[in-house]
Protein 1
Amino acid sequence: MDKRIYIDNAGTTKTAPEVIETMTEALETTWGNASTTNYYGRQAKQMLEDSRHLLARSINAQFDDEIVITSGGTESDNTVVKQVAKARQSEGRHIITTAFEHEAILRPLEDLEQEGFEVTYLPVDERGQISLADLKAALREDTILVTIMTVNNEVGSHLPIHEIGQIVADSNAWFHTDAVQAYGTLPLDVQTDQIDLMSVSGHKLNGPKMVGFLYRRRGIVFPSFVRGGDQELKRRAGTENVPAVVGFARAVELHQEKMAEHRATYVALKHQLVDGLKDAGIDFEVNGSLDEGAAPQVLSLWFKGVPNDALLTNLDLEGIIGAAGSACTSGSLDPSHVLVAMFGAESPRVWETLRFSFGIYNTPAEVDALVAALAKYVPLLKDKTDRGQR
């Protein structure tokens, strides 16, 4: 039995047994091509459309066909950035985002800048929040897209998406949000929040990897990003992975049923960790906010004077798995662009921060074990660092 303690659910989550059961059944019984009209194809198509209906309802989409199945958050983000730019470049070549978006947004934006598009990167403060006044000031007649994440994947900042949606709705721009870290944990309503486009990924809520969706409001038109056949109403080519889609839908269903309960559990675990570290006399600070403007499941902590790579390695040897930042850049030697945006490149936080992110299988006993391990290694590593500096 695996006795490791996994507290890196913002990186990915363990696939739920109910999801595995659903997918296994679909693999065994529904192996047809959903784009064909034979018996097996019709069977697969029905399961695909039933899942699409559930996904649409989960964000209060008005129509089921506003859900475009993709391979996950990265594809959805890339599709929005590149294809909206292609479709609307005659109307304008200005895009607004934040300085701490996921790389799936920032890197395609870098490509667009090489092609002559202008990008405004809104700054974020030490709470991981933007200024709505800055957003209003940045909007122009030639702004075609505003893309701002719902929850930051490294520090857990929950941005004011409802207010952002209201501001963008009064402009000519389309509003996209990367909701990968929020979906399944926080209630999302594309109607109330006036969201035009939304990216979601299945593996962040105990579903399978390589499946997600792009919400695309009716009337939002741009060319397909993945070219080939006419699947997904000609919006995304490729034979649909029906077992993964139904597994994703089952994961969504499970999280929708207990969303409030899960949030309360995550908040309790976060406070247990923070209080335990205080009681142990550990010198640390929360990056961002603990409560106000914070998602419940992500906690970013600065352990003062302790290199994050050394601390992460020692925790791993103890069987405790956390992260130094985004899973997408964990192998990089560069500092976290999120922490640089919040605190500056010279801040020691960029090299001395760990992220702990909770999921549905974490327990108070695991947090106690984490506190004990941190109480053991943080003073030891800090002493080594101090002696090395002397």
Protein 2
Amino acid sequence: MAQHKVSMPAGRIDVRQELEEAPLGGFHIRLGVLISMILLFDGYDLYNSAYIVHYVAGPWGLSPTRIGIMLSSGLAGFAAGSAVSGLLGDRFGRRSILLLGCWGSGVMSLAIALFAHSLASYIALRVTMGLALGLLMPLAITYINEIAPKRSSNVFTSLFFSLGWVSGSSSAGLIAAWLTPHYGWQSLYYVGGVALVFALAIQLWLPESPRFLASRGRWEEVKPLLYRLRPDRAAAYDAGQFATGGAISHRSPLGLLLSRDYRLRTLSFWAAGALSLFSAYGLSGWLPTIMLKRGENLSSSFAYGSLFAGMAVAGGLISGFIADRVGDRRRVISASYVLGAAMVALLAWATDRTTTLIAVAGAGAFVVGSQIVLNNLVAATYPTEMRGTGVGVFLGLSRIGAMFGPAVAGVLQQWSGGPGIMFAAIGAAVLMTAMLVLTVGPSQPHVVVTNAH
């Protein structure tokens, strides 16, 4: 690989080090809240399709296989949007692409409510909405990792990821139970359109990532952000000159993902992400329908979906807290996925409500919650100049797995006549994810890409 080390000149201020060593402050919290608002868009749409199956299956003539295709439809757009978001974010900046996704997804939510009158029209609109939503998560994860203080990075990123994404995903079930019986399934997407208010707030108050600005040498824009993140260092910033340490490479960020230094980790991440989201989306997409077949009423079936999503907060924070103290995220994430597989097995065998509640809560905590910390591990592995691309391609390929989750689950149920084989397939996928995470080696020295734009 064509790269060489860059030493930090005496008297220069290393922006990367300043951000990592910053004490957690009010400006961190404000930026974290704004990122949470972005992730709410993504989370809210995650389970919406699952909550409208009850209303559209009859009128649209849906078999289990066609239901699976409907549940997976938006994920095709998600995968494509995620795959290109990092490349765009590394070229044009995190902020502009995040804003494009926010405005686009809000508008498309309203379009679904107004114009989706058949399976074909719903799929077409949801794929388009997925393209916009796919831009959000990779760059939101990238952004929040680039501002997180090192000593609390796992808890900080897990907390604000959960605050937005899980709040959106868990609230969808509650809103569905409350609104759809009275106002129809379209009400879910009208509520999604209200998120355009959040898009305006983000437009007004979210600055560009200081690490991205530093990687482009835009020091006049970096300085005001550092003043706010580390006001105690204002005098040093006035007197010093800024620089960013690391190594320089003359390869594109996409090429570096499969270079010798990153190849094994990149391939392991891609496979682990695809299997993890295959499991998470397969469970989430079919959970309300399976609970209805087990005799639950509509409201309680939707509540199980919200519990599954909401418990990801607990799982992500627990895993993040332990990872910050243990220091080896790989082992923590792998152990969490093993617990997730155990909860999937318990859910398959559950016959009473108490056991079902425990299994659903545990699966949410240790399947979806583990994914949150896995996202942070991926972001921390890659340097600033290729981080957006690394996270974006990871989530794009992961969402191909997510796209197959509900569809494969539907085919398995139609073939076997019940959900047993589906649970077995999902449990096996979660265990394979745990094994793959352990193959990820320790991080290599970060590189700075000079010809990325």
Protein 3
Amino acid sequence: MTEPSSPGTIDAAALAALVRPGARIAIADGCGTPRAAFAALSALARDRGDLRLLLGWMPAFPEGLDLAAFADVRTVMPGWGLRHGVADGHVRSVPARLSATPALVTGPLRPDLLLVGAAPDPRGLVLGSEVSWVRAVIEAGVPIAAVVDEALPRAAAGSPLPDDHTHVIGHARLGPNEVPAAGEPSDEHRAIGRHVARLLPDGARLQWAPGQLGQAVVGAVLERGRPVHVDSGLLGDGVVDLDDAGLLASDAVATYLVGTRRLYDWADARGRAGHPVLHGVEHTHDPVRLAADPPLVAVNTAVEVDLDGQINVEGTARAVVGGVGGHPDYAAAATRSRRGLSVVALASTHRGVPTLVEHLSRPVTTASHDVDVMVTEHGVADLRGRDRPERRAALREVWDPAT
């Protein structure tokens, strides 16, 4: 894979020629978002005064993108990178599960132009470190403005960008944003990871999210030493650890990569060998596919949980943390998977504040009936087959075993 170096060059006039008055411009999201074009696009927005913007999941703040320059900015999944924009009122966060985004971006939020980063390949220009909802926009025939980035991995399944409506507006060698591990998992996270690993049936298909808790789950799977299938919306460096240990039972499946060069180089090698990791959300978040064998164990977390087991992942009363994303997609599919499990795992407190609350700070992200098992550092609450009072008692026990 080519080493990243220079920020690149953008033909601002070529970009401007593609943007009609009042246009809505969608920017491909994830770590490989075409940030080399952000300054030129922002300058165009300030000049025009009527351009609209459609964003997706941004794991890092989009440096160079002047959100205030656009007449309207919406995101179908804010992520950490857009939380301040949402809080400041520059970005409207649309509550939508990730599986619904292809319908949104080809329907009421259909853009007039799609801005992507693309990797050069013998077949043509290809998507790099994510596919997400972008494939749906491409297949809808929306014109594409492409920044060719030689440092992007060739990790995506599917056809190259269509020649007939793809316009190259610049070149770069930035590669994907690197997102290093958030630090070593805490003792609480490691205890949770061990509890989760004991729940896995042999031959399980595992979904988890990157972060300290995800690291702890992968660490426990490595200690357990039994192969797993990996089928997740986001993939971090942990999948490389599993592969190095010989514990990947099949080709990994995801729609976003979020990690370090080690992950991107691994995915690039897989793609070049004919085993692409990345697929569109129509595939990765399809509930019918996810609920089929092998059994799916979806391991998600939460900001807070109420006494009925309803889940909030969007934020606290004071701050936006994330969006709906794939949480309800994987949870609902896992409850339907025979021998599978929908697991929500989190520490019993966060910065000294209990994560089990009487009333959620924000709307429900995932319904209580789409959660099979709740895990804290204190143990496992199996909620299956229990009525409401029994579920409340089980939740209280794993938050405060002394009660």
